[in-house]
Here is the input.
Amino acid sequence: MAELQKLHDAIMSGDTKTAVAVTREALAENVDPMELIRQYMIPAMDEVGRLFQCEEYFVPELLLAARAMKGSLELIRPLLAASGRQPTGRVVIGTVKGDLHDIGKNIVASMLEGGGFDVIDLGADVAPERFVEAIQRSNANLVCLSALLTVTMPSMRTTIEALKQAGVRERVKVLVGGAPVTRQFAQQIGADGYSESAPGAVTLARQIIAAL
Amino acid sequence: MEQRMRSYGALAISNPSDLVFGRAPSPVSCGFDLTIGAGQVYPEVNFTLPAITVSAENWSEIVTQYTEMVTGIIRRAVALRAPGIVLEFELLPAMTECPEWGAEVTALLHRALREAHEKHGLRCALRVTPTDIREHGKPPLLRYGQGCEQLLRSFDLCAQAGADILSIESIGGKEVHDQALLYGDVPGIVFALGILAPRDMAWLWDQITGICARHPGVVPGGDTACAFANTAMQLAHQRMLPEVLAAVVRAMCAVRSLVAFEHGAMGPSKDCAYEGPILKAITGCPISMEGRSATCAHFSPMGNVASAMCDLWSNESVQNIRLLSGSAPEAYTESLIYDCRLMNVAAQQGGALMLRDWLTASDQWLSPQAALLSPEATLEIAAVIVERKSHYERTLGAAQAALSILRGGLSGGAMLIPAKERQWMDRIEQELSGLPGDEKTLRRQVQERYAGIFDPASYGLCESA
Here is the structure.
């Protein structure tokens, strides 16, 4: 019989191989996939997030845990889809046009994936129309915009305007972040949320999805 | 691998007493009567636009902004009787994608400096740094494609328009390094910094020095590991990465930044290359550094020690916003000029080494980054690099030397490193010692892990693709 606590511990320690093996064994034994997620996987990621917030963990520990979580979720997702249950949320993410910096965006994308979101990563220097296309194609409910340069902050506003003009703004919530971005700026450009850290972005994304 | 133009098998500066600000064995003359590294430290002012979209519609406003900035900077430099100054124009991505835009601003700045030299006798030079826009694709295509063509054309047009020094913050290997860094994958980091990055640097700097050769008087300055080591440093500052890992990455990066000099760079190296003192010790070329007067741009745990061996002293980047004393670029020009005055007067009165040592001691053991920047640590890492042959061996050697310096600081009680950071030191040490002695074996071991992330042909690795 699968030792389910090992799934929790494997995610905590970023051990993808064990996490996947335990998940596979549990599913073969007809353990409810939602039980795996709710009782073992999400508590493990919550604990990892807590350890990161209190500076016990660094990003490598965080991302390795997210990778282990993602490995297990890949086995579970088809079963949830077959039973009509949806993933946590679907996110389109990218660094806005004119900006080539993407490491912060990559951290957020990886953590969202580890948090159970479907993530469509458009990369860096993403034109507004590419965000629009991705939303239309994927039926996403969240859009995350990143910028590191002050001169590319206006591209965030342009992107939100493009979503409005394309008629998709009401379908998605928009989160923004990046070194020069402030809460005040987020409000000014009509974003729905702002976070100054990657774990904060995931928490905010979860709150927004829960409220939908 | 491309033919190296220069090979560094010994140190240009081996005595710590000779590794000091303002003096480099191979000074560089450029621009309007300016010689860098011949005894004086000069300010290097870097300035950028406030929040404004770079577009054809805004272009006249952008030109006005640059005109205001250079006018204010020169006014302040003349008022304070600065003995010389370097301006750095870092192109924004859109100005490299449209090389004519970058060249237009270059010409504007060049004209302003020429007038300042003619009217006020201000010794000056213009450094121009196009943005490395080759990383658009997934994987990035470094040796061909639109981004590469635009970048090389940007260098050419800026050289033609009046740049005196050409530099770049190149990104070859970054696509692998970013991921390896975030996952704490030491073999991946070594693969990116010791194998991929030097290959791209060799190719890219052959192009840059070739362009400089076509424009007499234009100096190939140098590169920086900003995309690698400064990324790591900033992530460590935000408690996202261990500081010891970021410091070890810094030491490893010196090897890839050195490749610019192997392929024709003459200095001054880029301001944000905190690996600069290692480059100076090896090559004897002048370096630019930034620290306590670059707080407008970013945090640094080594604001004083960074100036201990510099030849240009920079503010990294400041936006054109209004302050009580004038524009921010003017205000930072003033700060840099006063920093340089102090160093130059210390040198004139025989106190250069004393000031250097105070600058060093005030930072040295307060952070792993600073611990690697003392003259002694610099020479220790530099010596290990020149003792070894291949870039891969040098990268490993630099990492091991860095760890040894940190261990020394720790065991001697000079440095406090928290327990969780010490665990990372053990882990890095263990992983480094487990790496193969030859580059090909490491490539075989990690290439599959990063397949699809990098383009082997961009690194001359087609045979292994």
Remarks:
- Chain B has one domain: 16-464.
- The first strand of chain B starts at residue 23 and ends at 30.
- The radius of gyration of chain B is 21 Å.
- DSSP finds 16 helices and twelve strands in chain B.
